[in-house]
Each structure stands twice: as structure tokens, then as C-alpha cells.
Amino acid sequence: MSGPGTTRTGTLPHARPGETPANKATAAADTVTAAADLPWAEELRGRTVVVKFGGNAMVDPALHRTFAQDVVELWHAGLRPVVVHGGGPQISAMLDRLDLEVRFEAGLRVTTPETMDVVRMVLTGQVQRELVGALNAHGPFAVGLSGEDAHTMTAVRRPAWVDGRSVDIGLVGEVVGVETAAVRALLEAGRIPVVSPVARGEDGEVYNVNADLAASALAVALGADRLVVLTDVEGLYADWPRSTEVVARLTAGELDALLPDLASGMLPKMEGCLRAVRGGVRAARVVDGRVPHALLGGVFATDGPGTTVVPDPETPSAPVPASPSEEDDA
Ligand SMILES: Nc1ncnc2c1ncn2[C@@H]1O[C@H](COP(=O)(O)OP(=O)(O)O)[C@@H](O)[C@H]1O
Ligand SMILES: CC(=O)N[C@@H](CCC(=O)OP(=O)(O)O)C(=O)O
């Protein structure tokens, strides 16, 4: 198995597959993989892909391992994956064990100072460690950081909007600033950054950020090519819970119009996708993390699986009116 800093290949720690012939050969020999064989893998070489890891894939050990393999596969195919992880179910389980309240408003956890201690401990101390460990079973790839580290994410306190009313939900943050230097340095060193959705506040607080929105903010700031969100449903259902017909593709404008009708966990997820494509990410896709290798399909497939959000088509620019002198000449 090759990876950054592997002495066996004789490559520099920062070398990436494809950068040197030796590295390329080793990568090819070690990983003749599905991703690397796909024709459009070449098109995505060198591009940054932000992956939000959440839902069932996080709690099923076999899916957790497959996810880690797939992220490493992306790396071997020459992409620059960045993982932002969730951990809502694990936080709720720990709050239950500690006899603390579990409550959500508009898909966001009501976060008291006591809850925040648990959020920080579970996300950065437990969930992230497990993910970093699973990735590093394949080589010295992953480095975990909290959104608090090196000012990676700065947030301000935000309310939830419920039936048009603003509801105080405590130490929940809206990301207002992303400092990408630490993540970029890791990418340049050939590592896979794994980021937990906890942010610093300029007011000295620490904020709980929904992981979908954190992934979206990071994708925009990094100028990522894609945002892929793994969850525990097939994608966005058009008429949930009455029907489970998946919306395959929608433009930012179409999603914007749909957003007020969305509820629970799907609301921040789709809001994150919308912000991502409006912020310059070429496509945001929600895929079913219960399906093994969903991530590879999410990155490489052109149509489906799941729900793909794309930017609005460019409006053709209006014809330039003839200048008065040209009109006079006519
Ligand atoms: N329109 C919808 N389409 C699909 N799922 C929806 C929809 N509205 C609400 N949901 C709920 O959102 C959940 C996904 O959000 P969440 O539980 O926060 O996922 P994750 O843990 O992956 O972030 C689904 O399991 C489903 O119960
Ligand atoms: C403010 C807010 O709701 N934060 C989330 C952070 C974790 C998360 O988003 O995890 P999932 O992606 O697994 O849902 C929470 O406390 O659950």
C-alpha cells in the first residue's frame, strides 16, 4: 500500500500519484482501481472534492470501512478529497447516556453550554478519531482537525427559523469566515484533511455547526469542484413522507423555490447544496450512504445516483445596444 510519506516508494512525503513517474508506477501497481479506471477520473485529477460523511454509513462498521477505502481511492485517482464529518446520532446517544435533553429546531440541535461540551467531545474526540483511524488503515493519509483549529471556521450565533419566527437555539453557529490555509497545507502535503463541524466565535465562544452547512462553507472557500453529501436516504424525496420518489437533478433556482417546504435534516442539507453551487462549486450531490461505494458514484457518475444540484444556467447576455455613433452611421 502506498501513501504520503511512504518510504517504500522512495517518493517525497508531498508527492501525489501522477506527479513523478516513480510515484505513478507505484500507484498504478498498488491500486488498479475502479476510480482510477474511469475515463472522467482524468478530468477530475487535481480537483478538490469535499465529502460530507454522515448518516448510516457512519454507524455501520462495514460501510464505515468501505467509505474509508473509497476516499483513499479518490486520492489514488489523483483527486484531493477533504472530509467533513457529522455525528448527530452519536451526539444524541451520548446526551441520552448523560441524561441531557436532545432537541432539534428546523434540523438544528438546541445547544446549551453543557450540550456544547458533549458535541465537541463526541465530534472531535470520538467520531473524528474513528474516521481518521479507518482512513489511516490504508497508509498515513488522514489528519484530523476541528473547524476551530487555525481559524479554519469562524461562526456567529444563529437562531433557527420556525414558521417564520426566530427561535433561540443556543450555541449554534453560522459560518461567516473560512481560513483555508491549514486545509490547503495538508492537501499540498498529500494528506486527507478530516474536519469536524465545530467553529470558533470571535466572541470567545465555541459553536456547534450543522455538518452539511460546514461542508458547504468549506467547499466554497476551497473552490472545490464538487460537494458530495452521504446520508441515510436515496436523495431528496419530492413529496416526503408521502412518497419516496427521488428528485434526480435540480438547478439552484428550482431548489431555492423548494427550500421553504423542506423539513428536518433535509433542510440544512439542501441549503448547504444551494449555497455551494451559488458559491461556485460545479455540482453538489446528495447520495445514499447505505449503498456501498456510494461515494464513488457520487463523485464520478454524470447522471445519478441521488440528487444533483447544479448552478442556474447562465442567462444569455443581452445584446449590446449599438452606440449612438453607430446608429447615426446606419
Ligand atoms: N424531502 C425529504 N427527502 C428525504 N429525506 C427527508 C426529507 N425531508 C426530511 N427528510 C429526513 O431527513 C433525513 C436526513 O437528514 P439527517 O438525518 O440530518 O441526515 P444525516 O445524518 O445524514 O445528516 C432523512 O432520513 C429523512 O428522515
Ligand atoms: C447545529 C447542529 O445541529 N449540529 C449538529 C452537528 C453534527 C451533525 O451535523 O451531524 P449529522 O451530519 O450526522 O447530522 C448536531 O449537533 O447534531
Describe the structure.
The protein is of the alpha/beta class and 330 residues long. It has 13 helices and 16 strands. The longest helix has 24 residues, at 113-136. It starts with 20 loop residues before the first helix and ends with a helix. The model is unreliable at 6-33 and 323-330 (pLDDT under 50). N-acetyl-L-glutamyl 5-phosphate is lined by residues 54, 86-88, 91, 108-109, 119, 172, 197, 208, 210-211, 265.
Structural class: alpha/beta
Percent strand: 15-25%
CATH class: Alpha Beta
Distance between the termini: 72 Å
Count of helical segments?
A: 13
**Number of separate strands:** 16
Major sheet: size, sense and barrel closure? Answer: 8 strands, mixed
CATH fold node name: Carbamate kinase
What fraction, in percent, of the residue positions are helical? 25-40%
Strand order of the largest sheet: 5-10-2-1-13-15-16-14
Question: How many domains?
Answer: 1
Which molecules are bound in this entry? adenosine-5'-diphosphate, N-acetyl-L-glutamyl 5-phosphate
CATH superfamily: Acetylglutamate kinase-like
**Could you report the average pLDDT, rounded to the nearest whole number?**
86
Q: What is the CA-based Rg, rounded? A: 21 Å
- Taken in chain order, the helices and strands follow as HHHEHHEHEEHEEEEEHEEEHEEHHEHEH
Unreliable sequence segments: 6-33, 323-330
CATH architecture field: 3-Layer(aba) Sandwich
